[in-house]
Description:
The protein is mainly α. The protein has one domain.
Amino acid sequence: MLLNPFCPLTAGKVLALKATVALLLTLLIKSRVQIAGASALGLLLLLLQTLVFLAISGGLALAAGGAAFYAMQQRRQPATAAS
């Protein structure tokens, strides 16, 4: 079975995977640099990690909202065509 790239669920899965990869990559960079306490670089990486995670999770929420809206439109469309 081939997956349709325009399917909202597939887009949600891809966004979730991207969020996970970005989070793990940022954590790996932080651990490799071995930043002391509250250094400026540590705070910068923490801010970057937080912003990337929030941006990607926002995209995931947007994709889920779009999928819900699309599903609602698909359910309403046959009902109006029958009337």
